[in-house]
Amino acid sequence: MVRLDSVSRLQVVSGKGGTGKTTVAAALALALATEGKRTLLVEVEGRQGIAQLFETEALPYEERKIAVAPGGGEVYALAIDAERALLDYLQMFYKLGGAGRALKKLGAIDFATTIAPGVRDVLLTGKACEAVRRREKHGGHTYDHVVMDAPPTGRITRFLNVNDEVAGLARIGPIHNQAQAVMRVLKSPETAVHLVTLLEEMPVQETADGIAELRAAELPVGRVVVNMVRPHVLDEAAVRAASGDHRDAIARTLASVGVAGGTTLVEPLLDQAVEHARRVELERAQRAVLDGLGVPAYELPFLGDGADIAGLYRLAKRLRKQGVGA
What we know:
Layout: E1 10-15, H1 21-32, E2 38-43, H2 49-53, E3 64-68, E4 74-79, H3 82-94, H4 98-106, H5 108-115, H6 117-133, E5 145-149, H7 153-160, H8 162-167, H9 174-186, E6 191-197, H10 201-216, E7 221-229, H11 236-241, H12 247-256, H13 263-291, E8 297-301, H14 309-321
């Protein structure tokens, strides 16, 4: 089995809205932070979803430890803000310092990041790529892995393909050079883009479209993560039987085991069985579509109690059982 952590150090997690991509990104960061490893979990959309999952205060524009993984690993988190990233950029390349803060007061920073979304994206991705490349004094990387909770599937290719997005804005100079440096990381073996989906038609179709777009842009496709997988409570024979008329047989069975008023339960039981059978058939069809994409997949179970901290650790454990961080 090829492990995620043996493939890339920058792990980008995307997915259609509602598929739980932020939860998957958080669980992945925990799974990779094993046996003393250190991961950085990066948020770029300003939703503070990571802080909510880990039940901590809003993430500042600085790297902060938010969790300890089994084996002593550590998870740090960072909410990247485009304005702050641009101020850092102006200081780094132009030594503007206080002048950059003055530009912010005048609204120039808002203007730059709004009128030129390609610039905004290169700032956000550039901050994550800097964390990937950063090294300590002893020569080792500061973080073993950087996990990015990225924009949804419909925007992920444009978000990552920053070189094309800024080409018309800056053909030379620091912005151009920064975009090229970012693309060298994003298109290298150091990076993998994972797409989160549910076993439903729309998310699966969007996943298929996203993989095609990523491949066309020569961005590295990682894994499909099938999230919120629910168990099948009926075997194959029961699924097939659910579509037939078995009211009398069910009523007799309920009566034989002493269920009072069993006849009133027949219709609700049949309705649930039919609904379950339809879901099984739908999921089987969507699995076939995913299998046809030629991308390896991981599966994570549906969390009935919601995605709290305990749930994140359970998901991380499930990912490790499937080879992540092993």
